[in-house]
Amino acid sequence: MSYILSEETQDIIEAVHEFCENEVKERAKEYDRTGEWPAELYEMGKEMQLHLMEVPEEQGGLGLDRLSTAAILEEMAKADAGFALTYGVSGMPLIPILKFGTKEQIEMVCSKMVEGSFGAFALTEPQAGSDAAAGKTTARKEGDEYILNGRKTFITNGGYAGIYVVTAMTDKSKGLKGMSAFIVEAGTPGFSSGNHEDKMGIRGSNTCDLVFEDCRIPAKNLLGKEGEGFKVAMQTLDVSRTYVGCMALGIAQRALEEAVAYAKERHQFKLLKNQPFI
Q: Could you report how far apart the first and last alpha carbons of the chain are, in Å?
């Protein structure tokens, strides 16, 4: 696929490959065992601007296209799926913000990311996964604010991100057409992280609940219009699911490489690679 990638992207992929080989692969084993957030690795990644892949150049980012971002995430996933997932999800808020956001929202979010913030996207709830209309998180407008109440679950980067795009029901009677999307900053009163998931794998990527208890955010943090939340969410997932597929490809490539290497050295009656089925 390299022939359709720009020279700049190929240079980034080469740098990411070297970084992952030298820094990520071995350390990832320990982080996966402990479930610890690998802060040191992510800070090193920030120095390479890996959290700015989708931030426009005019806003201080790398301004990469979707294909380039996908190829870089694939390369990351060869070393560690958790490492790739953290950076992949970090850019998710930008997908809808760049499409539906105001100039002020775009500048605010991009500046936060350039300063070092990760991003996160909060749609899933304890009782609402694929059935987004079953969501119980609400947003009630009061003056020039919205008041959020509810709980999100299985949120990647939850508790560590600085910027979140959150969906909530502004009119339950309308079902999916009553869902809206909002930008919420970490540290907002009434907003906290809950249970940390002790997962079976991809443990170097944090996953937790988000809790909203009378969380007041400025009305200007509404992303798009009221009732557009489901459209915002689906258009975000259209892109991010493609990224997940590319990360899966990276995992598969690494698995194949490990299997081939093992077959070349394993002796079982005779060298494994010489067995007919290999």
A: 27
SS3 126: coil
Shared domain for 87 and 120, answered yes or no, is no
Do residues 91 and 240 lie in contact, with contact meaning Cβ atoms separated by under 8 Å?
no
Could you tell me if residue 97 is inside a domain?
Answer: no
Quickly count: other Cβ atoms within 10 Å of residue 68's Cβ.
21
Enter the tokens of residue 58: 């005019």
Domain range for residue 15?
A: 2-92+235-274
What pLDDT is attached to residue 264? 78
Which parts of the chain have pLDDT scores under 50? none
What is residue 4's predicted lDDT score, i.e. its pLDDT? Answer: 83
Neighbours of 130 (CB within 10 A): 6
Domain count for the chain: 2
Q: What pTM does this model have?
A: 0.90
Position 211, amino acid = V
